[in-house]
Amino acid sequence: MGIAIFHILVFPGLLFLTIFGFVAEYFDRKLCARLQNRIGPPWFQPIADFIKLLGKEEIMPREADVIVLKLIPLFALVACVTAILYIPIWGQQAIFSFNGDIIVVLYLLTIPTLAYFLGGWYSRSVYSMIGAVRTLTQLFAYEVPLFMCILASALLADTWSISEMVTFYNHHLGYWFCNLLGFAIAIVCLLGKLEKVPFDIPEAETEIVAGSFTEFGGKLLALLRMTFNIELVVVASLLAAVFLPFGLNFHPAIIFILYLIQVFSIIAVITFLRSLFARLRLDQMIAFCWKYLAPAAFAQVLINLILKGILPR
Amino acid sequence: MTEEEKIKQELEEKFGCLKDKVVIKRERRIFADVPIEKFDEIFAFTVKQMHFDAISAITGMDSGDLFTVMYHLNKEGRIVLNLTISVNKNNPSIKSVIPYFASADIYEREITDLLGIQVEGLPAGNRYPLPDGWPTNEHPLRKDWKASQSKKEVRNALL
Amino acid sequence: MINPGKIAGLLLHSLFKKPATIDYPAQPSGMPKGFRGKLKFNAKLCIGCKLCMRDCPSDAIIIRKVGEKKFEAEIDMAKCIYCAQCVDSCPKKALESTPEFELAHLDRMKLKVVFSADTGDDTTEKT
Amino acid sequence: MRYSKDVKIPIGPQHPALKEPESFLISLRGEKITAASVRLGYNHRGIEKACEERTYIQDLYLIERICGICSHSHSTCFVQAVEEIAGIEIPARARYVRTLIGELERIHSHLLWLGVAGHEIGFDTLLMYTWRDREIVMDILASTTGNRVNYGINTIGGVRRDINPQQNQQILEAVGILEDRTKYYISLATSESTLINRLSGVGLLSMEDAKQLGAVGPVARASGIARDVRKDDPYAAYADLDFKVITDSHCDVYGRTLVRMGELMQSYSIIRQIIQKIPGGPITVKSPRKIPVGEAVSRYEAPRGEDMHYVRANGTEKPDRVKVRAPTLANIQAVSKMLEDRYLADLPIVIAAIDPCFSCTDRTIAVNMSDGNKNTLTWQSLRLQSLQWYRDRGVDFTELNKKVMERFSTK
Questions:
Q1: CA separation (Å) from A147 to A136, A140, A168, A183, A294?
Q2: Domain containing A13: what range?
């Protein structure tokens, strides 16, 4: 019982993720600043923001549903943290793994987006309602290609469990290259899920103030920003596990180091893409996703099906 | 015979009342005092026949005993013709020029707010430039309106 | 003609270049020599004609007679807009502007700088 | 709730997209804007009334502070009107220096606009780079005129500072660097696909609409109307400089971007001509304090469009009437037309595309509320008044005020 508490609360659980979230946010903001020829924030900036926000006053709009608003950040946070338990970090075996845990992880990672929608809709302010509706419309656009790519790589590994996928790809290193297209599509879809610039339409700062988070303040906003960081880390580690299985069978500590490198490189790619583009309009984003991303993801699934037949087991 | 002189001559021929009222201050600047009763006719003539196709601004002034309203028209951005009309102070009212220029709408709202000149034909709309709380009979650009003697509501409106 | 990531080259290039911004409070950032900053008053040259008081757009300068041919200037830094019109209007060149611009102060009273007649230097201390 | 009736959302007066206070009431169906109405006047400080209570020299600095970005346009326009009434003929060198500072201001204003446009469409990297390059021209302005923003280079009868050869050299170097930076931005704007997607087809204003609604400056020129006050009604030294009036036929925000960038390139060539042709001689002429009776209309091509000043003098030291019509006031009429059946996401970039400067537009009324004769509200009486205002509304700050007062008085 004690070890489970340790896993949930400390190592791959809350404490590790929070610290990793802050470090990831710092790395993201610093790299983005350096790309834009600026100095960028000091290392303690994310923590300073968090503490400052904790001190601020929470203002609840009159018609808003107070209980829902208070629970939304927790709801999203819990979903993200539980998802990490199924992703192998320490060694090639995740803490809990069963056949079909990749589907569970994918659904767990959709819960935060639903939480943002509910948060926006229940704060009853005009801006957040529009933001909330945008979050959902955007969800339909990037969700399908993202799922298709990840499941394509699972198809090739002929298993539904992440840990078995990792071991499969470690033994057949050559197969890793067939998922490259899927990896690229997943990264682009990640920009939509994490609401990074080309697709940060729900949180479009210059149009609808802060989208569905307009009415969140004080502790709630602090918790929400922490959830963003943790979501960034969890999703990056999911992609690292599924598409970059360089673990082999070293000592678990070395695998952990490799895992950190993989996650930071994925975050670096996301930051680079984030400072590269202007924000697209909602209709352009949906058109882009359905015209280019979905067919490419479908092609990836086809390739994997064919390869599965040809390649030796 | 520069273009300005041609315009001046054409105006004076068409309207007897403008006989020596049209003055060319310098190149590309013509000033003309227009009697208020003939204003519509002259305005229509300058805009339609003489192709003064843009209105830059409408200036309202409090010149002691009466208000003067000056219409700044320009022709292809070059020559500026300034038509000036005087309005007596007790019930100042002029006709709107929105039928000719849609953009005159905001300039006329400014005159009504700041000088209290009523403009017939001005559609209802947001006040400009004074805040909504500002009392309707206070017109700051009038010479007799001093910031200090304004009543309490004006101060509250500003606070 | 359509290539989405056109700015990528610039981004990578500036990744390894020195950032264009500086840590302002830590690293000093000065203004060029001719900058119109805080005013300096030279009591000896002043003849008390008060031309500068007349031309000042925000009534920020007051010249007071403290003795025979001795004048003291009180400049309210909070009101002053640093246009240096007084520097131009002064016939005796008793006023000049210095490039100093870090004049923030906690106490508004401290911003009233008095240039005393004899010593001529101002009586404010740095924050 | 049936979704038939439109959602009315207020944009402004405080809103991240709008750098200055103005408010639009937008009625939305889904993402489409069905109607937009504009309310201005939030930034109104009573400058026109205040001008009547100050002398011409003091007015110069008040008029210059109408707007932070185009301060030189307003002060030059005002000074030209006053000099025309007084019949002062300013020396040639002063005219050239005024034109030089005017063009430097156009460069820094257009670069600033490019960055803000990038920020409006979520392209923050463009903001960071354009504003970094803008620092080059701001340093030049600071070293030549003594200040980064309110230059104060104009005085009645000429200019207050001369440009020495060493500064000429600095200006030429800066213009060289800025020129190929602008070339890079032009190539970026014409080929970066996300930028083009967000800009083209947005904020359409046909040529007839532009003429009818009285659009001026880059907004009109992007709809094909070749009107530029520097060419049509030359002032300062523009008569003997040759430059092209940049027009474009896109009639949308993309066209306005190209027009502004074309104007940047023209400004660089104008500055080079000025540095080459600038004559020697004095930079200012003695001017009377009392301006004789008269009136004048002066026009200036500000970065945002045609800026018009009307000054009437009554022989005393103080002007009888000063009327300022800023370019944004003319362009604002066109915004509601441009917003029709656009997406909500396009609203910030459409508003930003006319490069609104609302501090120019609302020139303000009573600056200081004085009781009795002409003195300003002292700091203490303002504090007491605000305490009273809050007490009327049932919130009592008197104890807090006592604590603050003690802390201040003890020091």
A1: 16, 11, 20, 12, 10
A2: 2-307
- Chains sharing 3 or more CB pairs under 8 A with chain A: C, D
> What tens digit of pLDDT does each residue of B38-92 get?
888 889 988 888 888 888 889 988 888 888 999 999 888 888 999 999 988 888 8
A269 inside domain: yes
| D312 bridge partner residues | D295, D321
Is A313 part of any domain? Answer: no
d(CA A276, CA D124): 9
User: Does residue A57 fall inside a structural domain?
Assistant: yes
Q: CA D21: distance to chain centroid?
A: 14
Please report, for chain C, how many H helices and E strands are present, in that order.
Answer: 3, 5
Tell me the sheet residues that pair with D299.
D308
* 0.90 exceeded by pTM: no
The β-bridge relationship of strands D294-302 and B93-95 is: unpaired
| pLDDT tens column, D68-113 | 788 899 999 999 999 999 999 999 999 999 999 999 999 999 999 9
Structural domains for chain D: 47-358 (1.10.645.10), 380-410 (no CATH)
Distance between CA atoms of A113 and A135, rounded to whole angstroms?
A: 7
Q: Which two tokens stand for residue D285?
A: 């002429």
Chain D neighbors of C3, CB-CB under 8 A:
191-193
Instruction: Report the alpha-carbon distance of residue A113 to residue A235 in Å, rounded.
Output: 13
Q: What sign for the dihedral angle of Cα A171, A174, A178, A182? A: positive
Q: Which residues from chain C sit within 8 angstroms of residue D135, using beta carbons?
A: 20
Closest-CA residue of B relative to D359 is B129
Do the Cβ atoms of D385 and B102 come within 8 Å? no
Q: Fill in the DSSP letter of residue A208.
A: S
Taking alpha carbons only, the member of D111, D109, D101 closest to residue D151 is D101
Look at strands B118-120 and D319-325 and give their pairing. unpaired
Crossing angle of the two packed helices D165-191 and D92-120, in degrees rounded to 10 = 30
First to last CA, chain B: 57
C125 part of contact set with chain A, CB < 8 Å = no
The total of structural domains in chain A comes to 1
